[in-house]
Structures are given as C-alpha cells and as structure tokens.
Amino acid sequence: MATGNQKENPVFCTHFGKRTGNAEELTERDRASILFLPQRQEEGMNTMPMDGLMTGYIAAELNRVLTGGRIDRITQPEKDTVILLIRAGNANQSLLLCASPNNARAHLTHLKFSNPLEPPAFCMMLRKQLLGARIESIAQKDGDRLLHVTMDTVNELGDHVKRILILEIMGRHSNLIFVDDAGKILEASRHVSPDMNRVRQIQPGLLYQAPPPQDKLLPWEADAENVEARLRECGDMALSKALGKSIMGLSALTAEEIAFRIEGRGEDRGELPRRVAELLHRLGEITDPRIEMDEETGHVTEFFAFPFLSRDLRRQKPAHSLSEAMEAYFGGRDQSDRLSQKSASMVRLLKSHVERCEKKLALQEEELAGAARMDEFRVMGDVINANLYQLHKGMSEAVLSNFYDPEGKSIRIPMDTRLTPAQNAQRYFKKYQKARNARKTAAEQKEKTLQELDFLEGALLDVDKCVGESELEEIRQEMAKAGYVKRNTSRKQMRDLPQSRPYHYRSSDGIDIFVGKNAVQNERLTQAAAPGETWLHAKNMPGSHVIIKREGEIPYQTLKEAAQLATWYSKGRHSSGVSIDYTLKRHVKKPGGSPTGFVIYTDQKTVTVTVEESEIRKITLVEG
Q1: Is residue 60 located within the same domain as residue 95?
Q2: Could you give the CA distance from residue 333 to residue 313 in angstroms, rounded to a whole number?
C-alpha cells in the first residue's frame, strides 16, 4: 500500500482556484476556448452519482479546509457513517464519511445526528487512535472513488505515527477502512470474509489492498495522442459513451456533459482528441458548485461541481461550496432511505395485523348476519307451543297460523321427526337464545376489531408521515404499549433521540398551522393548544390533529388551507369529498383511559374537501 509516495492527481487533489461565477456569466476566455454554449439538448434520465470526478473535487475542497485541523470528537451515528469534529482555521468543522450502499459520500455537514448510547467497536477504535490527531491531507487516489484521510497522531509510546481512514465509494460494496502507516487494517465498518470475497478480504490484521485498477486513462495524463488511441478503440461509439469507457472517473452524466461541450463547437472531428484532453486538464479551473432544483416540488434533484451546460441552467442554483450542494442533495435522501429501511419491518407487521383484523371482521359480520334470524326462531317456538294440541311426534314440518303476522298468514316450520312437538319448540327457543348471545358477543367483538383496525391503519398512516427517527420511535413505543412489538430494553439499541416536532405550516394570511405526524404528536399538540384555538380532524377516519394557532375569528383562506392539510394527512388523502370537522379546542376532550391521541369533541362544524398535492405545496412549510 502506498502511503505518501504515490503520484497525486495535480488537478483533482489540489486547490482548484477561483470560481468562475454563474454559468450565465462565463468569461469570454472560457466561451472562446472550452465553454462554448451550444443549443441545449433534451435532458436524459441519467443521474449524478459520486463518480471519480466528483470525488476529486470534494477531496480538493476538504483538503483545503481541513488540512492541519485537530480531531476533537468522533461519533458513529450509523454502522456505515462516521463524523469527525475537527478544529481547523479557528472554526469547528464536521466531516461526514458515509459508506452507505445508496448514498456513500464525504463532505462537511451542519446536520445534527443522534448517536447510540453505546458507541460501536469501530467508533471506539477511532477514538482511541485519533482523538487529538492532526489532518495531514485528504486526497483522492488514482482518479477512482477512493478517499484517503491521512492523519498524524501519537501512539502509546509517544511517537508520531500515520493513520489513514479510507472511504471506498463502491455502491453496495462501499466501506470505511482504518489502516496504520504500514497498510495493516486496524478496523473496518464492514468486514469482508473469504466466503464473501475470495480475492479481497477486509479484516483486522490483514494488509489493505486497494480495489483492482481499471483499464482507463487518468484525466491528468490525457493528451491528444492517447485520447485519440482510446477513441479509435471505441470505433463508431457515441463520444459520450466512448469517454465513459475510456476515461477514469466519469459517470454517464459527466461524460455526456464533456461530450456536449466539445461537440457543440461543430469543429472537425479530428480536433476531438485535443479538445477532450484540453478540457480534462482544465476542469478544475471551472469549479462552481450547483444544485439542480425541481421547480414544481422544490426538491434538489442533482448536484454539480460546475454548471452543466447540457442541462437547464435556469434550474441550477449556486451553492457556497460543494459540501453544501452535496448536503442539500444527500441529506434528505439518505435520511429517507434509512427511515424506509428501518420502517420496512414495522410496515410489514402492521399490514399483517390489518389483514388479520379484516378477516376477523368478515367472520364477525357473517356471524351477525346469521344472528339476524333469532326473532324468527323465537316466533317458531311460540307458534309451536300455541298449537301443541294439533301436532304429534314424527311430523317433518308444520304449517300453522302465525299470530305475530298482522295479516295472520301461515308459517311453515321445519320439525325434527325424532322429537315431540314440545321438544321442537324448546329446540327453537335454544336457537333463539344462542343467536341472541352470539349477536351480543359478535357485536362487542366487532367493535373491538374496528378499534384495533383503526389503530393499525392510523399507525400505518403515521409511518408514512415520518421524516425523522424520533417519530418512528414514538410509533414503535405505541405499538409496544399495544403489545404488537416487544419493549426495547437494550441500551445498545436505544438512542437518545430528541423529541419529535409536528409539521409547521404558515397560511397565506401568515397564521401558523401545526399538524401532528403520529398519535403521540397529536395528543401533545392538542393538549398544548389554547382553548380558543381551532382544532380540525378528518371525520370518522384516521388522520392528523391540526391546530390553527390563533384565537378568535379565522380568515376563510387560513381555514381552507388548514382543512386541506387535515385532508392530506388523513386516510382520505386520495379520496374526493372528505368531511373535515372543526371546532374550538375547548370542545375537544380526552376520555380517561383512552388510547394515545384519542379524543371526543362537540360543537363542531363540517366542511367537505378534495385536495391535490399541488395545493399542499403552495402552503408554506416552515418546518417539516
């Protein structure tokens, strides 16, 4: 393993120099040489992963900001994520190193993470070796998705030694590996045994082996001659595909951008190799981080180290740093992915119980339908008793006058030939009593089943509204209270989670509206509301408690938007004509001993609402 004598990338591992400004204001020099802006192509469906090019850009940014910094704190909020708190340049910086299968990356972060009460073994190893260490360099290796954080630290003997934290960004094989100056693996976030990979194992005590090199041209070694040779090998392949196949570190999207910048000049194809080499060498000079926004949803859809001329420049917003751009893109996406993974088993459990309740409900309704004949059984018994004198044993049926019928019509009564008329009457009375008891029991059981189904469907709805682990844990605790999951008593699994917060919206009239995300938040939100504030809820279905934070008269538009929110965050989200009840909070009561979030209310008014997602997006979300 090379620890310091390996040739470094002069473009991708050094300070990139000044920014070039907005893409719309590119310099004349850029326009004249490389950055010719042709007519924009239709956008493809490719996305921007952490390719080698992006790894080089972020390595340069982190190296510039953090070199010489001291590591003051180390945390490991997830099995594949480490946060280094570094004092550098008279400021505290948090370096996130993530080896998540879907969102592996490295950047500075301002997000707050909850940590396990007991740190994992990998975190303990890093703390033992690296607290107080100095960052020597942060560099990309070989143009690949490999990031080496090299640190100078003091060992137990007081000697200065090198330690390297390696982030391998390789999809589901991504890993964080901690090695010493001899290249021996001290620990890794993910161990790889011989059974998992016979060629390359990642285990403490083994020598670290870098992933096998690819047969591609390194960007900083590109010249017209070797680029031409590579393109010739690709034959008639489209330039973007040929670049992706030939040049190290280019994703499909980056290769398309480079091809777009070069082919747009309309020059002789014989000039392509020289233009490719020229652009590859100059990429570092045009760094200008951008985030691409979806105009309809406001979500970040991509991030770039420089403006991508092949895509709509109007949707590309400047970012102060590449770290800021990456955090805007990955932050919510990573959190959403992790929540989906953690909630998957909960959703499966809830759905299985919903299916069980639905089957039970169908049987109870069938039993109630059968019990509907109980009055018929009683009438038959009474009619037989009134006509015993004209009946005898051995009759298979009796046709008698029904004195319960207003018109005095006859009734045909099946008889058991083995029984006397009196015994047949008693048989029908017993059927009546059994049906009567069954109706009462089935009705009670049906009510309990409906309550359970309401809880389960509400919990499923709440899981869908979760945006943080705190909310998910609150749902899990409610499920534990109800006996669906075991209570968590292991300190290793418990997290010191902050109290979750409801959705906070602001109406067009500037009035705050709060929406509960689960039963716990619903109860907390309603209890904290002032008596004169307005409370809303979808009628006769699971949904969020909604509070308009104003006493007195409520403007029509605010009430309309609050009702839309109550509809959107209910089981009736995709239904039309959902009834929304609203009343003052003083009329909302919680019965003693009732489940979390359960209330009764009076003096309500009702509005009918049908809502589209586009209408919800128009309401200002202050905090999600």
Answers
A1: yes
A2: 23
* Three-state secondary structure call for residue 598: coil
**Crossing angle of the two packed helices 322-371 and 469-481, in degrees rounded to 10:** 20
Nearest to 298 by CA among 321, 335, 332: 332
Taking the C-alpha atoms of residue 382 and residue 377, their distance in angstroms, rounded to an integer, is: 9
Percentages helix, strand, coil for the chain, rounded to the nearest 5?
40, 20, 40
d(CA 176, CA 97): 8
- The structure's pTM equals 0.67
Specify whether 33 is located in the same domain as 174.
Answer: no
Q: Are residues 514 and 480 in the same domain?
A: no
Range from 25-29, 346-350, 558-562, 610-614 that averages highest in pLDDT: 558-562
Nearest to 213 by CA among 132, 309, 146: 146
Q: Which two structure tokens, joined as six digits, stand for 10?
A: 């002069």
Q: How far apart are CA 37 and CA 24, in angstroms?
A: 10
**Same-domain check for residues 465 and 589:** no
Assess if residue 569 is contained within a domain.
Answer: yes
Statement to judge: residues 352 and 307 lie in one domain: no
Angstrom CA distances, 585 to 455, 549, 595, 597, 601, stand at 23, 11, 19, 14, 9
Quick one: 353 and 490 in the same domain? yes
Residue pLDDT, tens place only, 545-557: 999 999 989 999 9
> Per-residue DSSP letters for 137-196?
EEEE-TTSSEEEEEEEEE-TTS-EEEEEEEEE--GGG-EEEEEETT-BEEEESS-B-TTT
pLDDT, tens only, 296-351: 777 888 999 999 999 999 999 999 999 999 999 987 777 777 777 778 888 888 99
Check whether residue 512 and residue 399 sit in a common domain.
no
Based on the structure, what is the number of domains in the chain? 4
Integer CA distances (angstroms), 210 to 68, 170, 176, 194, 462, in order? 26, 12, 12, 16, 44
Give the structural domain span for 365.
343-497
Q: Residue 151 forms beta bridges with which residues?
A: 135, 163
Do 101 and 226 sit in the same domain of this protein?
no
DSSP letters along 60-123, please? HHHHHHHTT-EEEEEEEEETTEEEEEEEETTEEEEEEEE--TTT-EEEE-------BSS--HHH
